Amino acid sequence: MSSSYRVAQVGAVGAPLEIVERDLAGPGPGRVRVTVEACGICHSDALFVNALLPGVRFPLVPGHEIAGRVAELGENTPGDWRVGDRVAVGWFGGSCGHCPSCRRGDFIVCENLKVPGWAYDGGFAESVIVPADALARIPDALPAADAAPMACAGVTTYNGLRRSSARPGDLVAVLGLGGLGHLGVRYAAAMGFETVAIARGAEKSAFAQELGAHHYLDSTSGTPVAEALQALGGAQVVLATAASSSAIASTVDGLRPRGELVVIGADVEPLGISPNQLLMGGTVIRGHPSGAAQDVEDTMAFSALRGIRPMIETVPLDEADAAYQRMLSGSARFRMVLTMS
Fold first, then answer.
1. Are 31 and 129 in contact (CB under 8 A)?
2. How many CB atoms lie within 10 A of CB 172?
3. Could you tell me what percent of the chain has a pLDDT over 70?
4. DSSP string, 125-175
5. What is the pLDDT of residues 97-120, one digit of tens each?
6. In 190-290, which ranges are E strands?
7. 252-258: average pLDDT
8. What is the model's pLDDT at position 115?
9. What pTM did the predictor assign?
């Protein structure tokens, strides 16, 4: 076994990713060393690369869409994990286990949440050490490159829908057809919802139908999105994957009474929604923060069952910075995934 491994690290705030070699270390108690086979590149990685969140330290190894195999178990590792097990680790990279949220079993909103690439080195690497409670088992039907994005993009969209107020047969709209949205449409259709895809440009209609959408709304057509949704009967749920506050806000009046806006697309701008838009219809707006390890496992199992896969571009670790820049540019179709050889 080699005594070293390679990582793609950021040496300073906003610096490019560079390949460096590090000495291999064993996992401590309750932790597991994972040999990384693939790691997705998420737009949230920019929060760490640019130090937009507190406590970011450099040099930094990003990456929170990890798929690989258990290589070594630390002492007193909980669970029935074995060397060679196929595992994924996502935005949920472990919890403290003792804050009020953890004591209620709501681990994804742990006050001391451990996110790979923030709390510890992430998956832009050939090896990573993670807490055992972060591990999700990958089904045999999912290759590592497909499983990796499921640990963040997949679980965020899948969980956002299954924890919403929508029931089979309800009208559900997915705003955006990017890295999150293309999965959101596939999951919505597979869950039995009458699925509406919303994006910019008439040319995306055929693609939306390929994903399983029953309706497509072009937000640039001149007909307001809310009006078009109401013409379909009003949406029970809008899953907002687009990172645009103005686009998100434009859907609110398209909800039916007691409808729900589930926000998973991040933007720093205020939503610009008035209380009057919420009061008369009893409208709910809710942010949705990914999912814990069991949720990731559920997402992958459902995806394997229904034949749902992310649309990915694979790139070797050596080209991590070029892949990261392609993600930032919006050119990726739709998730960039680093592969280790």
1. yes
2. 30
3. 100
4. BSEEEEEGGG-EEPPTTS-HHHHHHIIIIIHHHHHHHHTSS--TTSEEEEE
5. 999 999 999 999 999 999 999 999
6. 194-199, 215-218, 235-240, 255-263, 284-287
7. 98
8. 98
9. 0.96
Q: Give burial (CB, 10 Å; 0-12/13-18/19+) of 282.
A: exposed
One-letter amino acid at 133 equals D
Q: What is the mean pLDDT of residues 148-172?
A: 98
- Confidence at residue 1, expressed as pLDDT on a 0 to 100 scale: 61
Q: Would you tell me how many other CB atoms lie within 10 Å of the CB of residue 146? A: 25
- C-alpha span between 248 and 181 (Å, rounded): 13
Give the strand pairing for 235-240 and 171-175.
parallel
239, 177 Cβ separation under 8 angstroms:
no
Residue holding tokens 């064993």? Answer: 26
How far apart CA 108 and CA 119 sit, in angstroms, is 14
- Interatomic CA distance for residues 314 and 108, integer angstroms: 28
